[in-house]
Amino acid sequence: MNMNKVAAPHSLGLKANRHQFLLLVLINAFVGGMVGLERTILPQIAEQEFHIAAKSAIFSFIVVFGIVKAFGNYLSGYFSERIGKKNLLIIGWIFGLPVPFMLMMAESWNWIVVANVFLGINQGLAWSTTVMMKIDLVGEKNRGLAMGLNEFAGYLAVSVAAFLTGWIAANYGLRPTPFYMGIGFAVAGLLLTLFFVKDTRHHVAAEAQVNTTKRLKNVFMDTTFRHKNLSSITQAGLINNLNDGMVWGMLPVLLFTKEFALADIGLIVAVYPAVWGIGQLLTGKMADFFCKKSMLSWGMMLQGIALLMLVFISTKSGFIFLMALLGWGTAMVYPSFLATVADNTHPKDRAKVWASFGYGEILAMQSVPFLPVF
């Protein structure tokens, strides 16, 4: 009986760990809210306050964010077993605290770029760590549902923050008011992590005892080239991040050049992560029952159609429809992507495998300034 009492806190499964799981879902919503602060109004700040017209210069904040976030992903995988995932999450939030203040008080565009260094570290450590901790908690069953819930919270928060910053900016100015909510996100995320989150290393050890997945000999080479499933997911992740980086940087600029009002830009920009987030409540569970390969293929096809059609659309309703289509395609891809990584990885290799995916974000985000500008 005493043995059962000791083992119970480290049992695997969504139901057995529902309190910690839901806490991490809430924390990931705050992580998503942090990146949502920038989705709508930074290109307008660049042009109106700092008089930056070159699109490649405007997109510099995305490139810096992507590179730093990729290295943050790598570090989260490398250090998670050394210092613990809870400590990584705390460090991620410490780097997130200065971001809203820097965005509010920036005296030059360089301040914005430096703020995105801090934001990239915050996202690379915090988002990646919450994903890995949820995978640790749920075990093999309902892994797709778990990832769907995680991404639902994160990207719904991105959407809400993107919409609110656009609405607030339209009514109260570009700065500083739209960024006040970021202070709340960072403080709440840090305090919840400090006082309520528990590390998941014992859950990893418990799953490792029964998991029969073959260990990887060279994590980076196997993940990138040798392992059929993991290498395919790596490539899909690169394309997905390229699509997201392009939409993040170019869509507000495109809408601005078409003379859409700032509030309408905020609404259109928010539709994509909203459908992406809410859709994963369904597609996450679908990933537990249907072929993940088919979901990835169809999802990326819908992404391609939506992005291609952007050049032919000029109405508000048309852009909303395409952003919804893009969001649904990404919702099909993302939980399948995360669940497949976990399915093909031994628990002891999982953090290192996650780290090796970082290079895809580097390549994707570096490509953004060189994409065709509408």
Level-1 CATH class name: Mainly Alpha
The portion of residues forming beta strands comes to under 5%
Sheet/helix structural class: mainly alpha
Work out the radius of gyration.
Answer: 20 Å
Question: What is the name of the CATH superfamily?
Answer: MFS general substrate transporter like domains
CATH architecture label:
Up-down Bundle
Query: What is the rounded distance between the termini?
Result: 67 Å
Succession of helices and strands: HHHHHHHHHHHHHHHHHH
How many distinct folded domains? 1
Query: Unreliable runs, pLDDT <50, ≥5 residues?
Result: 1-8, 366-374
Residue-averaged pLDDT, rounded?
83
Structure in words:
With 374 residues, this protein is mainly α. The chain has a single domain, classed as MFS general substrate transporter like domains (Growth Hormone, Chain: A). The protein has helices spanning 2-7, 18-36, 42-48, 55-58, 60-83, 85-96, 98-105, 109-138, 143-172, 180-196, 201-208, 219-226, 228-257, 262-286, 292-309, 316-343, 350-356, 358-367. The radius of gyration is 20 Å and the shape is globular.
List strands and helices in order, with pairings.
Blueprint: H1 2-7, H2 18-36, H3 42-48, H4 55-58, H5 60-83, H6 85-96, H7 98-105, H8 109-138, H9 143-172, H10 180-196, H11 201-208, H12 219-226, H13 228-257, H14 262-286, H15 292-309, H16 316-343, H17 350-356, H18 358-367
Helix pairs in contact: 2-8, 2-9, 2-10, 5-6, 5-8, 5-17, 5-18, 6-8, 6-10, 7-8, 7-10, 8-9, 9-14, 9-16, 12-13, 13-14, 13-16, 13-18, 14-16, 15-16
